[in-house]
Write a structure and sequence with these properties.
Layout lengths: L1 H13 L2 E4 L9 E5 L6 H8 L2 H4 L2 E6 H4 L3 H10 L3 E3 L1 H6 L1 H15 L4 E4 L17 H8 L4 E8 L1 H4 L13 E4 L11 H13 L5
Parallel strand pairs: 1-7, 2-5, 2-6, 3-4, 3-5
Antiparallel strand pairs: 6-7
Helix pairs in contact: 1-2, 7-8
């Protein structure tokens, strides 16, 4: 009930219209990866999914933000079922970054999809920063994953950094055609290809 209500509120607040280049036709395990410019981002993507897909999709989010206060903790753990990772720790050491990837893989199990933001941090001007290597290493661990690029338009203007109330603008959530990590594909080539697939959605 709370999840359905939040999905409805997110659609109203963001004015986001969802567009699928290639709608999903089955329940396979997916990794939705998107640009990141607002605290609304994962909620907007999550709410744009069908109820069936939403029930099987967990956002990956920073524990430092979502464990701050009882309301955020409740939403993260009980409503969104988020996989919470230590962002500061992941930046501090390769070993901790590896543990974060393992934690995400474990949280996915064999049937849960996830929402991730490969830039690793929010963009304040709307530009898409280079991708960090986390999704590459996760795909190495789970080579069957179907990766779906997602482009969020106007989110940085609807809820700018430091603002509490959203600005009444229309957003868009554009889901692209799926891709996979190719056998033997090197990290740099994969990250460049994935980022290009996301950026191409701006023209949709």
């Amino acid at each position: 009930m709370v999840g359905r209500l939040l999905a409805t509120v997110a659609k109203i607040v963001s004015g986001a219209r969802a567009h699928w280049v290639q709608p999903p036709t089955d329940a396979r395990q997916r990794l939705y990866f998107a640009n990141h410019s607002s605290h609304l981002d994962f909620v907007v993507i999550w709410s744009a999914l069908t109820p069936a897909l939403r029930a099987r999709t967990r956002p990956v989010a920073g524990a430092d933000y979502w464990l701050r206060g009882p309301v955020r903790r409740y939403l993260a753990r009980k409503v969104f079922r988020a996989i919470l990772v230590d962002r500061a720790g992941a930046a501090a050491s390769p070993a901790t970054a590896t543990r974060s990837i393992e934690q995400i893989a474990e949280g996915m199990g064999t049937d849960q999809s996830i929402i991730v933001f490969p830039e690793g941090t929010r963009s304040h001007d709307g530009d898409v920063k280079p991708f960090k290597s986390g999704i590459y290493h996760l795909c190495r661990m789970k080579p069957h994953l179907e990766l779906v690029p997602v482009y969020l338009a106007n989110m940085n203007r609807i809820l700018p950094k430091g603002e509490v109330l959203p600005v009444p603008l229309l957003g868009r959530v554009i889901f692209g055609a799926p891709l996979r990590l190719e056998p033997g594909e090197e990290k740099a080539a994969f990250l460049t290809r994935a980022r290009a697939a996301m950026l191409a959605l701006r023209e949709q």
